[in-house]
Amino acid sequence: xxxxxxxxxxxxxxxxxxxxxxxxREASPIDSQADARVSxxxxxxxxxxxxxxQLPPKYFYDATGSHLFEAICRTxxxxxxxxEIALLRNVVAELAASIPDGAVLVEFGSGESAKTCxxxxxxxxxxxxxxxDISADALDEASARLAGDYPQLNIAPVVADFTGxxxxxxxxxxxxxxxxxxxxxIGNFDKEGAVRFLRSARQVLGDQAxxxxxxxxxxxxxxxSAAYDDSHGVTAxxxxxxxxxxxxxxxxxxxxxxxxxxxxxNVAESRMEMHLVSCKDQIVNAAxxxxxxxxxxxxxxxxxxxxxxxxxxxxxxxxxxxxSNIWISDEPRVAMVRLEPHP
Length: 343
Ligand code: AVI
Hints:
The protein starts with a strand and ends with a strand. The longest helix is centred in the first third of the chain and has 20 residues, at about 30-50. The chain has about 350 residues and is α/β, with parallel strands linked by helices. The protein is globular and about 60 Å long. The protein folds into two domains: about 30-60 and about 225-305, no CATH class; about 80-220 and about 305-340, Rossmann fold (3-Layer(aba) Sandwich), CATH 3.40.50.150. Strands 3, 4, 5, 6, 7, 8, 14 and 15 form an eight-stranded mixed β-sheet that branches. Strands 9-10-13 form a three-stranded antiparallel β-sheet, with helices on one face. It is built from nine helices and 15 strands. It binds N,N-dimethyl-L-histidine (AVI). The site of N,N-dimethyl-L-histidine (AVI) has 15 residues, from strand 13.
């Protein structure tokens, strides 16, 4: 996920990694970079001017943020990656058995396609793999590696923001399609965004489709809080890196030491929240604007929604999907959900 792609621990898979949120990575062309900078400035100005200050989590994933996210995934406290990989290993044969002959695997926000090898190994009947990611570099690297490892597979990468309008390549024409969206990234969308993404996946995958989604489940507050405030302080650095990025890219003068990392469980919204809390009254400049922070004032940087089997089924139903199967890991529990289009 340079929100783009959040790399995973090497031991999980020969070529480990996963990508993030419909959260966007940096695009490489100069024009796109300039556009991205303008969007970033606009989001910072509006987000820091709001009554409740907030920034979209996609901005976590510059190069440093992506490495910090990788490091988070390796911590003992952040169970999400570990549990999902273990679950995938346990159920991949069953997942693969439901994939039709000649089907095409479409991965949304594929990054380095780290978890994909588990599915590709178990489902030799796949005819093609369509990784979709905003980072052309990540796609090139992953595609070259997978082409070597799976010479029979047609690999047809698509450089795109998977939260936007998508068109699949010719390799997917006339073939059943299986979507893959691991990593609990669905939890980083608000409800409207999640429904919008699931609807667009429903449209792009077609009527013969299935969609495999990794979902984090509601659990005890202590486990959740530790995952988002790990004992090594990696998540705190990840959160504060956003301020460092603003300083570098938008001529900001944030003092990251003047903000505390806060992770809290919002039970009413069923989500973990991350905030940066101002340690004092202070004035900060960024993107040519000046912003006042009161002591104790929060900058809301991320939501990570946690689901029950029922709440996720309800969300999916709003987007035209039914749950055909759900597999749940050992504790701390995460789920892999198989969705099918509503009949
Ligand atoms: C990428 N995403 C699924 C992570 C999550 O758990 O929401 C991002 C993250 N934020 C803090 N730790 C990890």
